[in-house]
Amino acid sequence: MIRVAARWIVSSVALLFAVTALTFVLASVAPGSAVRAVVGADTSVTPQQYAQVKRQLGLDQPLPVQYWHWLYHLLHGSLGNDLFSGQPITQALGTRIAASLSIIIATVVLSGIAGVAFGTVSAIRGGVIGRVLDALAVFGFALPSFWLALVVIEVLAVQVRLFPATGYVAFSSDPWQWLRSIVLPVLTLSAGTTAAIARQTRDSMLQVFARDFVAALRSRGLPLWVIIWKHALRNAAIPVVTTLGVVFIGLLGGTVFVEQVFAIPGLGEAAVTATSNHDLPLIEGIAFYFAILVVIINLLVDISYAALNPKVRATT
Fold this sequence. Notes:
Blueprint: H1 2-29, H2 34-39, H3 47-56, H4 63-75, H5 89-125, H6 127-142, H7 145-159, H8 175-209, H9 212-219, H10 224-261, H11 267-277, H12 280-308, H13 310-315
Helix pairs in contact: 1-12, 5-6, 5-8, 5-10, 6-8, 7-8, 8-10, 10-11, 10-12, 11-12
């Protein structure tokens, strides 16, 4: 157990280092300049003033030195300050992470419930129902997210007026309005993720139902729902849990598009703004937060493996 924990810690630290270092390099070599964004379109700025601003921002130093300074501050609990507002990165992103996590977690929960239900019915019933569900899964994969976002806004926000088209309300401010504000983004993201989980659930359930122990349970006269709920789903769960983890990680990138379309002040929207402004500290902070979420999800997936499969517990 100690070796497993040590291996997980080492791999997590290596992942965080690799992600932040690669982000730092890519953001530094990307076209644009934070100094130019700070100075703006003022043509009266002299080269000396430009150099002074660059020095004040710490961008006149070599790239390895800049990254080392960032790591030093990180080890002391600071992600630096926003180049434009001067606000600490942790404070700037602390108000945004709740919006992104609200959408991601709600999407994973909805996709997980719907995907497992559709996949299980498809595996058991087959026939016309199975083919219809398979067709819906393929349709969900192929459906463009940007088109679906426009459709749900037009239908559910403009025509029917059930939900707000844009904006986000914090849960602490008004739980009901919070729920209404995330419905459309969650529906947009859930189409493809539900399809992925449904297909994986269907394949896993078909494999489980082909095993001898299921035939033995049926011969004993156990109701089908008991076999599914107490035996089949548990044995089919590990591939589905893996898919859920992959879906969660994939949604970290999906929020960038959704938050732009629905004007949600989350990490994805901040990433777009920071990239356009070449705000390196803010970009690094967002990448660090995303990497932390990936580490946490991988840990939860490993814990789920151990809970679902006694053999995994025995090896750890």
